[in-house]
Specification:
By secondary structure, the protein is α+β, with helices and mostly antiparallel strands. It has 4 domains: 2-164, Rossmann fold (3-Layer(aba) Sandwich); 171-228 and 485-560, Topoisomerase I, domain 2 (Orthogonal Bundle); 233-291 and 418-480, Distorted Sandwich (Topoisomerase I, domain 3); 297-414, Topoisomerase I, domain 4, CATH 1.10.290.10. It is built from 18 helices and 18 strands. A hairpin with a 5-residue loop joins β2 and β3 (35-42). α6 crosses α15 (507-516) and α9 packs across α15. The two termini are 36 Å apart. It catalyses: ATP-independent breakage of single-stranded DNA, followed by passage and rejoining. It holds the Pfam family Toprim.
Length: 562
């Protein structure tokens, strides 16, 4: 029996071959993409001949037939135009490679990524392999479903081969056609329109995308709010008290701020001769800070941008590399809750060998950890999880920083909540109320390993009800309301998720597109997105319905497979 297996990338084919071949031994032949061969058991056959090769992402892309290439054509005609699939990289001759390797094989086993795009690539591979196979029926085409490149996960997938899902593949076909027709039609239309109206725009082609444009519109809407903002003056009573032998404490006025100076001055006038602040209430509570949910793609991208200074597209590229190397599970997932049968024990035991947090993991294993019950199970892939222990010297640079975050977040998600006491003290100065707050952590819980989420103690002296404390100062400082800041990448990712723009896999691409096409510029350590003149003119030139997110959200929803 002869079996051909196909992965999405050459590096993945190599990693999977190493796990599937007996003893990890196989021969490699250099062809269009490497082909790994070995002999081993398959179903009831003890000595099946295996070949494992790969594609390099999508085999095809979609485009219009040649009669629609002219920009002189009315863009409206593109919506009913004929499309065709072309080889994504004709020079590689990948379709011929797949056909050649499939000649005479009995089974085709598909190891493409387990998402909708992967399912579409499955059928691209099938269309090139099935005609050359010895058995030309779909019951000889099998689908491996896996979420991590580990021996256990890969062997489980091999023992539970299923069928590819044609409906998911067709959903991608429909989306590709929609994106092509809408994108090309509006790109041609708006390029001619804006260049005729604004000759100084810094672009020869002004592209439109069903997801790109609403993504840009979020950035421009924030820019417009900043530009139209009118600052207002306000006043607030600032009070400072000082208990003997203790540092001075700033009090917060219960009215917060007043936008009329004369009224604020009246309030100050009623208390400006007071010498003491009297404690009228003390409230102490035990509180807890919830440990994080299990990690999904959106939260990974947001943290990498806001805390590590790594762009979403670069973060995704590094995460995919860590996955291919077997360090983490599949990095594209919307799920933030571990399945009931998820083997938390094994992952924690693997991490107990790590030099930085291994001892903490051993304590969790010894004392018991908390299995998370919160989060959302979307049913796609398990949360992003460390699968193989690593030290900083194994990975280096940004790859290590991202792995470090993923591992610590996993450990934190099964750790106890942070426990602390919160004390609120209310003071009376004349007839006006003021307050101050303090807190003290007595059990750091998950923050022991997720140090960036730790909470600093907020010191206030001990007070007793009825006690009078000398007032050190009373004043009426003026402040001004401030405009919102430009969106950060992390904030934009959150808005895209809330409004259904893109998917966990495509969000980095859409953000990268608006940067690469000179619609926005990324500025500062916070990675804020400042629209360029081109981006601003583009969004302002649209009718609102074209840039708002609702149309894209509805269309994405309609392409979702139940």
């Amino acid at each position: 029996m002869r079996v051909l297996m196909v992965a999405e990338k050459p590096s993945l084919a190599d990693a999977l071959s190493r796990l599937l071949a007996p003893g990890g031994r196989y021969e490699t032949h250099k062809r269009t993409t490497p082909v790994h061969e070995w002999t081993g058991p398959f179903r009831d056959v003890p000595n099946a001949h295996f070949k494992f090769t790969s594609v390099t992402g999508h085999v095809y892309n979609v485009d219009f037939t040649s009669e629609y290439n002219s920009w002189d054509l009315d863009p409206i005609k593109l919506f009913s135009g004929k499309i065709r699939k072309n080889e994504a990289n004709p020079k590689m001759r990948l379709t011929q490679h797949l056909h050649n390797e499939a000649k005479g094989v009995d089974y085709l086993v598909l190891w493409l990524d387990c998402d909708r795009e992967g399912e579409n690539i499955c059928f691209e591979v099938i269309n090139n392999c099935l005609p050359a196979m010895k058995q030309k029926t779909m019951d000889h085409v099998l689908r491996a479903r896996f979420s991590a490149i580990t021996a256990q996960d890969v062997r489980r997938a091999m023992q539970n081969l299923g069928q590819p899902n044609e409906n998911e593949a067709k959903a991608v076909d429909a989306r590709q056609e929609f994106d092509l027709k809408v994108g090309v039609a509006f790109t041609r239309f708006q390029t001619r329109f804006f260049q005729g109206k604004y000759g100084n725009l810094d672009a020869t082609v002004i592209s439109y995308g069903p997801c790109q444009t609403p993504t840009l519109s979020f950035c421009v809407e924030r820019h417009d709010r900043i530009q139209s903002f009118q600052p207002e003056s306000f006043w607030s009573i600032a009070a400072t008290i000082q208990k003997h032998g203790n540092p001075a404490v700033k009090l917060n006025w219960h009215r917060e701020r007043i936008f009329d100076r004369s009224i604020a001055s009246l309030f100050l006038g009623t208390i400006e001769n007071e010498k003491y602040a009297t404690v009228v209430d003390i409230e102490t509570k035990r509180k807890s800070k919830q440990r994080p949910h299990a990690l999904n793609t959106v939260e990974l991208l947001k943290h990498c941008s806001s805390s590590l200074g790594i762009s979403p597209s670069e973060s995704m590229s590094i995460a995919e590399r860590l996955y291919t190397q077997g360090y983490i599970s599949y990095p594209r997932t919307e799920t933030s809750k571990y399945p009931d049968n998820f083997d938390l024990d094994s992952v924690l035991k693997e991490q107990s060998h790590q030099s930085n947090w291994g001892q903490y993991c051993e304590e969790l294993l010894r004392n018991g950890y908390t299995k998370p019950t919160s989060g959302t199970d979307v049913g796609d892939h398990p949360p992003i999880t460390p699968m193989r222990v690593a030290e900083e010297g194994d990975l280096y640079g940004d790859a290590w920083r991202i792995y470090d975050f993923i591992a610590r977040t996993f450990i934190g998600s099964i750790s106890p909540n942070m426990q602390y006491t919160s004390t609120s003290v209310t003071f009376a100065i004349g007839n006006e109320k003021f307050h101050c707050k303090g807190s003290q952590v007595f059990s750091p819980g998950f923050a022991s390993v997720m140090h960036w989420m730790s909470k600093a103690d907020e010191y206030i002296p001990e007070f007793t009800k009825g006690e009078s404390i000398p007032i050190a100062s009373l004043s009426l400082p003026e402040g001004k309301t401030s405009p919102p800041e430009y969106l950060t990448e992390a904030e934009l990712i959150g808005l895209m998720e809330q409004n259904g723009i893109g998917t966990d896999a495509s969000i980095p691409t859409h953000i990268n597109n608006i940067c690469q096409r000179n619609y926005v510029a990324v500025t500062g350590a916070a990675r804020r997105l400042v629209p360029t003149n081109l981006g601003i003119v583009l969004i302002h030139g649209y009718r609102k319905s074209l840039s708002l997110s609702i149309a894209t959200s509805i269309y994405d929803h309609r392409l979702t497979i139940p």
